[in-house]
Amino acid sequence: MSVMRSLYERVEHLAHEVAKFGTVGAAAFVIDVGLFNLLNSGSGPLHNKVLTSKAIATAVAATFAYFANRHWTWRHRGRSGLRREYTLFFVFNLIGLGIAEVCLATAVYGLHQDSLLAKNISGNLIGTFLGSLFRFWAYRRWVFLEPDEQVRSEEAASASIV
Which pLDDT score is estimated for 148? Predict the structure, then answer.
């Protein structure tokens, strides 16, 4: 019975993290899509630069997501320093952006689907969904550490110096 209870507690905790991550992600998605469409619409300042528009929109949304995830989703996890966390967060967001950009570029340049609807489906729905799966795993694994994982990683780092 203790094994079942332990499994339930682990899944329940994960479900809460997924729900919070999803809520932050939904807000970041609105920022990302809204800014992308503002920049890339026919009258937007970057209407002919689809990948640049996506990169700028994602950078703004990711900065919002970092602070929301740090202070809400994973506030119970250890803090390993803004520089370390944000650097890793930024790297993993670049990879997530790369996933979205590949989806967007495939649709626009590979399949010649350049309508605003096609751009939004490929970059903002498919690309963002796949990138979010990757980011949740990466943030949980490497950015926002459990307190005992932080101690072990610091011990390993100091042992390698000696």
Answer: 64
